[in-house]
Amino acid sequence: MSSAVGADPAVVGPYLASVLGDPRWREVTVELIAAGMSNLTYVVTPAGGTVDDAVILRRPPTGAVLATAHDMAREHRVISALGPTAVPVPRTLHLCTDPEVLGAPFYVMERVVGLHVVTDLPAGYADRPEQRRAIGDGLIDVLADLHSVDPQAVGLGDFGRPEGFLARQVRRWSGQWDATRDRDRPAMDALAARLAETVPATQRAGIVHGDYRLDNCLLDPERPGGIRAVLDWEMSTLGDPLTDIGMLFVYWPEAGETRPVLSPVTTLPGFPTRREIADRYAARSGLDLGDLTWYVGFAYFKFAAIVAGIVARSAAGAMAGKDTSGYADRIDPCVELGRAALEDGVL
Fold first, then answer.
1. How far apart, in whole angstroms, are the C-alpha atoms of residue 109 and residue 111?
2. pLDDT tens for residues 221-255?
3. Are the C-beta atoms of residues 28 and 46 closer than 8 Å to each other?
4. Is 326 left (phi over 0), alpha (psi -120 to 50) or beta?
5. How far is CA 300 from the centre of its chain?
6. ∠ at Cα 302 (298, 304), nearest 5°?
7. What is the number of alpha carbons within 13 Å of residue 103 lying toward its C-beta?
8. Which of 38, 90, 120, 137 has the most Cβ atoms closer than 10 angstroms to its Cβ?
9. Distance between CA 330 and CA 337 in Å, rounded?
């Protein structure tokens, strides 16, 4: 058995054997594959099994204090509800709400085989511009499919409070910034105030992913443009779907741009521009994107507040083992991009 903090194989194996009704799970290996700043993801493989037999286990970070940001039951619920829809999600297998088992609630789902693209496309994959265009189009089409799902029809009618969603979001992230501000940043305060003054009317409430981007999806290894699964639903709720487009734009740099984002993949020739993304999404969703610059401005504000929180936790010694160097330097550029979207109409 291997050792994995937060998912002891000696506990996970017998537990899965019991709840799945299959003794081959009694002994397992557990490999941590995603630690990051958020929930922990493990591959669990039965002894003597292959990677094709493996399942995925998700749990909150060890020592997590913001329970609402790591709600396993919510994440399990939305993935299970979307299973029969056109949105590609893994099949859920089990939810454990008893914190006595692993120290926190967790759930188990099928392992989907797909490409996880973070900073580079794999060698030999989507080498042609038209294939990269297909990836961008596929991501947008899946997002439009998500936003077309009727929450009531899939049992998610009470999954959030769409009324007043945008104003609440501005207040929430303004509060996060106030609680974790690393130093005086007048432009950040000004952006928060301007966003609060100019909240647009929501056209249609729907299921919001909350962090939709390329590296939160698994791509089809054989067919560029195919999306095998959308992952990381921990921020999902009911609200204004255009917040997903705004946040996607934060993670979608274009050729020639230098932005404080994590991946330059979309700068490669062939990937659609942000304007082309907006046009395709508008055509697929039927929504009016006339106020899109507000959503982009808010997304940059939210991203800056998240980064400020990471900086604050790092300064307090709560990010041990995670490299947060340079994070504080991302805040002001994000604020300026948010201001440029809101005031100058820059997408």
1. 6
2. 999 999 999 999 989 999 999 999 999 999 999 99
3. yes
4. left
5. 15
6. 115
7. 13
8. 90
9. 11
Q: Are 193 and 145 in contact (CB under 8 A)?
A: no
**From CA 42, how far away is CA 189, in angstroms rounded?**
39
> What is d(CA 1, CA 228) in angstroms, rounded to the nearest whole number?
30
Task: Record the tokens describing residue 214, joined without a space.
Answer: 């390329």
169 Cβ partners below 8 Å, 6+ apart?
239, 243, 298, 302
DSSP secondary structure string, 116-172? --SSSPPTTSS-SHHHHHHHHHHHHHHHHHHHHS-TGGGT-TTS---TTHHHHHHHH
Going by C-alpha positions, the residue among 206, 198, 196 that lies closest to residue 168 is 196
Residue 226's closest CA among 322, 314, 113? 113
Residue listed under structure tokens 């089809």: 220
Cβ–Cβ under 8 Å, residues 79 and 90: yes
Joined tokens for residue 343:
């005031």
Give 256-310 as a 3 state SS string.
Answer: CCCCCCCCCHHHCCCCCCHHHHHHHHHHHHCCCCCCHHHHHHHHHHHHHHHHHHH
Angle at the Cα of 253 from the Cα atoms of 250 and 257, rounded to 5 degrees: 125
Q: At 109, phi and psi to the nearest 5?
A: -140, 170
pLDDT digits (tens, 9 = 90+) for 92-105: 999 999 999 999 99
CA angle 174, 325, 313 (to 5 degrees): 45
Q: Which residue, chain included where needed, has tokens 């998912």?
A: 7
For residues 269 and 265, what is the distance between their CA atoms, to the nearest angstrom? 10
How confident is the model at residue 1, as a pLDDT? 42
Beta-bridged to residue 29, according to DSSP, are 45
Longest Cα–Cα distance of the chain, Å, equals: 62
Does 65 have pLDDT greater than 60? no
